[in-house]
Amino acid sequence: LLQNRINSFDNVRALSLDPQLKQIYGSLNNEDLFIINEFYQAKGFRKLHLEVASLGNSMQILHSVFFPDPCFEIPIFGVDLVVISDKISAAIVDLSPVSKNTSKFFKSSMASITIPNFKAFRDLPDWGGIFSPYVCFISPVDNNEEKSFLKLIEDYLSALSTFLNNIKPEHADSINTKERFNFQKLYCLQQKQNDKTRSVLSKFFGSSLANRYIDDILFEC
Questions:
Q1: Alpha helices for the chain (secondary structure H)
Q2: Taking the CB of residue 96, how many other CB atoms lie within 10 A of it?
Q3: In what helix (H) or strand (E) does residue 88 lie, and over which residues does it extend?
Q4: Number of CB atoms found within 10 A of residue 22's CB
Q5: What's the pLDDT score for residue 101?
Q6: Given its phi and psi angles, is residue 29 left (phi above 0), alpha (psi -120 to 50 degrees) or beta?
Q7: Which of 19, 24, 28, 82 is nearest to 204 (CA)?
Q8: Cβ neighbours of residue 4 under 8 Å, at least 6 residues apart?
Q9: What is the spatial distance between Cα 68 and Cα 43, in angstroms, rounded to a whole number?
Q10: What pLDDT does 108 receive?
Q11: Nearest alpha-carbon partner for 156 in 82, 210, 80, 207
């Protein structure tokens, strides 16, 4: 789904990445661990990141963030899925704001998306002020809720494409562009406060390389 959406963007191209960080293999708690990263760039986006991680047969993680070109007033798309024993244990998707004043077009587009009445919504972390009012963070209780969440991801991606097709870029030196870039920096800084991510990576990489991975791969700005 995510790869197909990326391929649908104009002028999409793969970005170079240190081979040591593109495919990472090792072990954690006596289980094989591998992480695969892919970076792309396209019209309207400075970086499209796909990350897939697997720890033996016990856990799989999908992490993806579409960072917009700050010249475009389009939100930051982000999604994370944590799968344990073939069941999604945690799922979050959002189109996060990139300016103080959310446009009427954004609000009307998001209002048209129906978030299913999931049974187990989860609380956002303390640093979660970067997310929009439309963020959905849940623990699906059954297969039907898993399918509904995957459909919701598709709806958010469709909304993102609509924004992209209706927005004209502004000059790189404009006040609005600089504001959007600062919002992206804030988004990255807040995401780096996720202690769970840092703890898991530190167990595998050690604290120094874990910090480099978070700074250079996950939330570089």
A1: 2-8, 19-22, 104-111, 143-166, 175-191, 195-205, 207-213
A2: 21
A3: strand 87-96
A4: 14
A5: 75
A6: left
A7: 28
A8: none
A9: 9
A10: 82
A11: 80
Tell me how long the chain is. Answer: 221
Give the per-residue pLDDT at 194: 86
Rounded to the nearest 5°, which phi and psi values hold at 15? -100, 145
CA distance 202 to 191: 16
Rounded Cα–Cα distance for residues 176 and 11 (Å): 24
CA angle centred on 43, ends 40 and 49, rounded to 5°: 25
Tell me the whole-structure pTM to 2 decimals: 0.94
Helix, coil or strand: residue 200:
helix
Q: What is the mean pLDDT of each run of 10 residues along the chain (221 residues)?
A: 93 91 82 91 97 89 96 95 94 93 79 92 94 95 96 95 91 95 95 85 80 88 83
